[in-house]
Amino acid sequence: MERFNSAIILAGGKSSRMGYNKELIMIDEKRIVNYQIEALHGIFDEIIVVTKNREFYNDLDCRAVSDIIEDKGPFGGIHAGLVASRSKYSYVMACDMPVINTAYINFMKKNIYQKDVDGCMTLYGDHIEPFNAFYSKNIVMDIEEYLYGGGYSIHKLVKTLKFIYIEENKARRFSPNWEMFINFNTREDISIYLGSGSSD
Ligand SMILES: Nc1nc2c(ncn2[C@@H]2O[C@H](COP(=O)(O)OP(=O)(O)OP(=O)(O)O)[C@@H](O)[C@H]2O)c(=O)[nH]1
Ligand SMILES: [Mg+2]
């Protein structure tokens, strides 16, 4: 099994705060997911999109799969992505994140290279960043048990597993304004991002 050849894009949420399907968000006349798929192909061979609308991806260079455990939020999507993944470690993004930071992805890879861990994610104060992170296929059963037991929070389960955490100050060297973790939950989030004109 390849260790690092897969990326998962979560695109099966309810988009309730946005008011329209977030899979369709456009930036500079391009869908964010299309941009992500292209950018991630520079690093990964296999791109898996976890969606309720597999037909949206027919013409794109990716595999589209559906949730196996439905209505459980992002962890349900991560679960289906990891089941589909042909790699030990998969990189996980959300379809509402406009920035792909290749240098940081490679930095995380280096951190877990040759290690046997459950994944790697970044600390933000006391919180963790569940996306722009790596997860191991080994945790599929842990996620199943957790979701069927009524769990929902990624943070709570991850705390019980063996993740490598990258300190916020180290991550900021790659993305001083934390843009690599920006995600669009409301229309206002998009206008703030487009208005800021900054990128890192
Ligand atoms: N496959 C899958 N992805 C999900 C699910 N729930 C959320 N996501 C994705 O996880 C990412 C982060 O979730 P949110 O930002 O809360 O997105 P959301 O649930 O669509 O939006 P809200 O309804 O406003 O909370 C987004 O890329 C969502 O598409 C799910 O049940 N299945
Ligand atoms: Mg979000």
From TrEMBL:
Chief site of localization: cytoplasm
Described purpose of this protein according to its UniProt entry: Transfers a GMP moiety from GTP to Mo-molybdopterin (Mo-MPT) cofactor (Moco or molybdenum cofactor) to form Mo-molybdopterin guanine dinucleotide (Mo-MGD) cofactor.
InterPro entries, sorted: MobA-like_NTP_Trfase, Molybde_CF_guanTrfase, Nucleotide-diphossugar_trans
Organism listed in the record: Dethiosulfatibacter aminovorans DSM 17477
A Pfam match: NTP_transf_3
Record keywords: Cytoplasm, GTP-binding, Magnesium, Metal-binding, Molybdenum cofactor biosynthesis, Nucleotide-binding, Transferase
Enzyme Commission designation: 2.7.7.77
Protein residues bound to GTP: L10, A11, G12, K22, D67, D96
Protein name: Probable molybdenum cofactor guanylyltransferase
Keyword Transferase: yes
Compartment annotation: Cytoplasm
Lineage: Bacteria, Bacillati, Bacillota, Tissierellia, Dethiosulfatibacter
Catalytic activity: Mo-molybdopterin + GTP + H(+) = Mo-molybdopterin guanine dinucleotide + diphosphate
One GO-annotated biological process of the protein: Mo-molybdopterin cofactor biosynthetic process
Cofactor: Mg(2+)
Classification via PANTHER family: MOLYBDENUM COFACTOR GUANYLYLTRANSFERASE
Molecular function GO labels: GTP binding; metal ion binding; molybdenum cofactor guanylyltransferase activity
SUPFAM superfamilies: Nucleotide-diphospho-sugar transferases (SSF53448)
Binding positions for Mg(2+) per the UniProt entry: D96
Domain annotation MobA-like NTP transferase: ranges: 7-150
Family: Belongs to the MobA family.
Signal peptide (residue range): none
